[in-house]
Design goal:
This protein is of the alpha/beta class. Helix content is about 50%, strand content about 15%. Helix 1 runs parallel beside helix 2, helix 1 crosses helix 8 and helix 4 packs parallel to helix 5.
């Protein structure tokens, strides 16, 4: 039986997930990486092994499929790996009017952002509890604190991740398993995300970060046992403003901001709508 201890990271082939993998590898942690097929995961795994000298197990899997989370759990079990950290990073978001959205987009968002996260956490929880100390880090979003017009399914899914994480944290208090949730603002990942951030001007420059910055802050908070991690001082101010500012005012500001995105022509909106399938 292999007693190797690993960190499991989903959505690990690009963006924030890849940054999580590299940051963990820098600290000598062996990895189990999961990502969609044909997104470059084997190459990422080989690169991390070569550069950082850690063992990397890679599984190409679609976590929105009914058996996707089960395949990941069996992959870990069949190799006899001990899991002391789980980073539920895989996620997707689509920007646009709900009335013009594709049902498949909405279903994919719900399946990946909520159902897959819950299933993976439940399946790997026994392995996590087998350690004296273990960690779960769920990736939500600053959108978890606000209902978001033109991102209604995405923001609602991230609100679920936030609430689920805090509830599970209380359930597991005293067991040795600590649950944290990171709520970043925009992340400069794929082309659509970068274009969307660029259109925000000064606000985008002040609030949006690179994947490496978010991953570093999130893992530091996770290992410190923090409940909610919001990377960046401006974003932390926005988070607290969500409590202090009357909802009607906050919703007016958000609506005006995202209404500008809704005015994009159809081809522009299509190109920019998919925020990031590896972690938003």
């Amino acid at each position: 039986m292999n007693s190797e201890t690993c960190t499991v990271i989903t959505g690990a082939s690009q963006g924030l997930g890849k940054a999580f993998a590299e940051e963990c590898a820098i600290h000598g942690r062996a990895l189990v990486l999961a990502a969609l097929p044909d997104t470059g995961l084997p190459e990422v795994a080989r690169w991390i092994e070569r550069v950082h000298g850690v063992r990397v197990h890679a599984l190409e899997v679609d976590l929105t499929c009914d058996d996707g989370p089960g395949r990941l759990a069996r992959f870990v079990e069949e190799r006899g790996l001990a899991v002391d950290a789980l980073v539920n990073n895989a996620g997707v978001g689509f920007n646009g009017r709900f009335g013009e959205s594709e049902p498949a987009q909405n279903e994919t968002t719900i399946r990946l952002n909520t159902l897959a996260l819950v299933a993976i956490t439940r399946l790997l929880l026994p392995a996590l509890r087998g350690n004296e100390r273990a960690h779960v880090l769920n990736v939500a979003s600053l959108a978890a604190f606000f209902p978001m017009p033109w991102l209604p399914v995405y923001s609602s899914s991230k609100s679920f991740v936030l609430a689920f994480s805090l509830a599970l944290r209380e359930e597991l208090r005293g067991t040795g398993v600590s649950v944290s949730v990171v709520c970043p603002n925009g992340i400069r990942t794929n082309r659509g995300a970068r274009e969307l951030i660029a259109r925000q001007g000064l606000a985008g420059r002040l609030t949006c970060q690179y994947p490496e910055q978010v991953a570093r802050a999130a893992l530091k908070g996770m290992f410190a046992g923090r409940a909610v991690i919001v990377p960046g001082p401006v974003n932390r101010f926005i988070r607290f403003a969500s409590v202090l500012v009357p909802r009607a005012i906050a919703m007016g500001v958000i609506t005006r901001r995202w209404n500008a995105e809704a005015r994009l022509s159809a081809p522009q909106r299509s190109a920019a709508s998919r925020l990031n399938v590896a972690g938003v």
